[in-house]
Amino acid sequence: MTAQSRTSLRLEFSRPFTLVAPALGFASGAATAAGAAPREPWSLDLLLYPFIGLVMAAVLNAASNALNQIYDLEIDRVNKPKRPLPSGRLSIADAWTFTLVTYAVALVLAWFVQPGGRHECFWIVIVATIMTFLYSAPPFRTKRLALWANVTIAIPRGVLLKVAGWSSVKTIVGVEPWFIGLIFGLFLLGASTTKDFADMEGDARGGCRTLPIIYGVRRAAWMISPSFVVPFLMIPAGAWLHVLTGNFWLLQILGFVMAVYGLYVLYLMLRRPEDLAVEENHVSWAHMYRMMFVAQIGFALAYLL
User: Fold this and answer.
1) What is the pLDDT of residues 246-260, one digit of tens each?
2) Would you state the pLDDT for residue 139?
């Protein structure tokens, strides 16, 4: 295998289409912090530390994806047989090397996100890293424990991602960054289940008790429905309560747009819930990513304009 082929294979193993969301989330958190009261005066640090951080977020997500694929090998033989590991194109040894190297690189990058000499980002990333191991690796492997799987996705990829982005500009001591992180965390608490519907057969064989397996497709779809709307109602509420210090009217618009978007996704999910378990990637899964993108960009604009 040529060096180019090995690089291409490792890139595929990292699941590159999933790396944009954490990078954007980190950048959005940094932009939000820059525009939050009191606004940060211009300096090169407003570009340097967020840039290091967004690269770090993408690398950390690649590490998490790799770790998950290692421990999901038997499940992926059923659900995702064409991926590098179950197809035999990548060895377990190479997979572990990639995983450990990317985790190490992410931690090093996080250490260099130090505005004002603070290393808050590094400690957030330490916690996030631990949670990715709790999710994928035995003996905890919360992926097999229904709602606990959602919790160990929502905290690092929702709450901590936004707070880490904030930490690249301002200190995380205060209510505002955690309130914003909570909005995204509550969204992912339910929305992350959209990836589980089509994987029920492999997950069941692998001993993973996801919400669709425990409660059935229809009931699970209804259970996660509030996460598509309720968190975004916190945006206008946070502006009214002066917890969120971005542009008041842009935050009202953002909350309204996201809530309407969430209702539309619910319509797609609930009109024929049985399709969630039939289609390989139901449209609601794609919309979950798009909702994250819209919300991340919306927050940045509401604080910078």
Assistant:
1) 999 999 999 999 999
2) 92
Q: Identity (one letter) of the amino acid at 73?
A: L
Contact residues for 178 (Cβ-Cβ < 8 A; gap 6+): 159, 163, 172
To which residue do tokens 């319509």 refer? 267
Structure tokens at 170: 């301002």
DSSP structure string for 121-170: HHHHHHHHHHHHHHHHSTTT-GGGBTHHHHHHHHIIIIIIHHHHHHHTTS
Residue 170 near residue 235 (C-beta atoms within 8 A)? no
Contacts of 245 (CB under 8 A, 6+ apart): 36, 37, 176, 303
Provide the phi-psi class of 173: left if phi over 0, else alpha when psi is between -120 and 50, else beta: beta
pTM here? 0.94
Please report which confidence band the pLDDT of residue 115 belongs to, taking 50, 70 and 90 as the band edges: very high
296, 287, 295, 286: which is closest to 24 by C-alpha? Answer: 296
User: Can you read off the two tokens belonging to residue 43?
Assistant: 């300096």
Give the integer Cα–Cα distance in Å for 84 and 260: 38
Please check whether residue 183 is in contact with residue 235, taking contact to mean a CB–CB distance below 8 angstroms: yes
Between CA 208 and CA 14 the distance in angstroms is 22
Given a cut of 80, whether residue 282 has pLDDT beyond it is no
- Neighbouring C-beta atoms of residue 88, cutoff 10 Å: 8
Half-sphere exposure of 105 (CA within 13 A, CB side): 18
